[in-house]
C-alpha cells in the first residue's frame, strides 16, 4: 500500500513539493514547526524559513458535463487525483425561484411594468447552470495550484457533431435538410407511428402527441421523443417513461439526449479564458480526445475513468506513470437554503437551524460501516445518508449512531476513496 501524500506550503504560503515522509511531518507538528492548513487534502504550512526548490507540475483537466477529472504529475509520478462532481440542480432551483417571484409580484406589485424585454446579455454570457459548471472546473484547477507548484495546465476540449451522434451515416446535404424535411411535425409523427397508438395498438380513434420521456422528467420536445397515444393510455402513463410504463422497445427509439455534449461544448471557451487569465496564456494548452485515448490505452494501459483520462492528459507523449491508489471525491455544494416560509399558502415558517443534534447538512459521516454525507435531517427521527460520488441513497439512521468524518469547506465536500 503506497503512502498518502502530504502537501507542503512555505511560511509565505507558496506551494512546495509534496512529501510522503510522515514521521518528519509529525515531528514538525509536535514541535510547532508546522501547522495544519487543510485536512482534505492534508496540507501543512511550515513555520520556519526554508529554501525553495520546486519542480514544475503538469495538471490535466478532463472537462465534463457532470463530472470533471483532475490529475497532477511530476517526475513520472502522479501526485494528485480527483473527481469533481458538478451541480445539476441549478436549472430546477431557478425555475422554482421564478415561480415564487412571479407569484409574489402578482400578489403584491401588480402595477409593475414588465422588464423581460429590455435587458441585453453581455458578450460571453452563459446560462447559470453552465456558468456554475465552468466556475467549478476552474476552481478545481486553482485548488491544485494552491497545493502544488503548477507549471503547465493541459485541458481537453471537445467539439461534438450532434447530428452525427444521432445518425452516423449522415453526409453532405442531409445536414441541411433535417429529419422533418417536407413534413409538418404532427404529420411526421402520424406517418412514423402509422396512425396507431404506440402502447395499445388501437387505430381509428383520436390520437394525442405523447412524450416518451415526460417533460416533467426533463424530456425534450424533439421529434425523436414524441409518439402517439390514445387518451386512456396517455392518462395511465402519466409521469412515467415508456420503459417504466412497460414498453422498453419504444424507449429505445428515443435518441440519446444531447444535453451533456452541448454543455461541454458551451463551457469550453469560458474555462480556457479563465484559466489563461489566472495562469497565463503560455501555461495553458489544449488537447483533444483522440490524443487522450491513445495515451491512456496504448501508452499507459489504463481503463476508462475520469481520473485516468486526466492522468493521460497531464502526461506528455510517451511518458509512463502509475495512477495512485486513492482519489479525492469532491462534490460541489449549494450555499444554503434561503426559503423562509413553506406550505400550500406559505403559512409555515421554515425552521432550518444551522445544526440539528450537532450535525449540519452535507457533513461526511460514518454509520454501520458505510460512509456518506447527510442529505436530510429531522428534529425527530432518522437522518438520510447518501453516497458522496453517486448521490445514491445509502441508509437512514438516527443521529446517535453517526460518526463525523469531515465537514464541508469552501463550498466543497471532499472525501478520499480508494480507486
UniProtKB/TrEMBL annotation:
Claim: Hydrolase is one of the keywords in the record: yes
GO molecular function, one term: endonuclease activity
Keywords noted in UniProt: Endonuclease, Hydrolase, Nuclease
Record-annotated HNH nuclease domain positions: 184-235
Source superkingdom: Bacteria
CDD domains given in the database record: HNHc (cd00085)
Cross-referenced SMART domains: HNHc
One Pfam family hit: RRXRR
InterPro entries xref list: HNH_5 (IPR029471), HNH_nuc (IPR003615), NA-targeting_endonuclease (IPR052892), RNA-guided_IscB-like (IPR047693), RRXRR_dom (IPR025938)
Name used for this protein in its record: HNH endonuclease
Organism, scientific name: Ktedonobacter racemifer DSM 44963
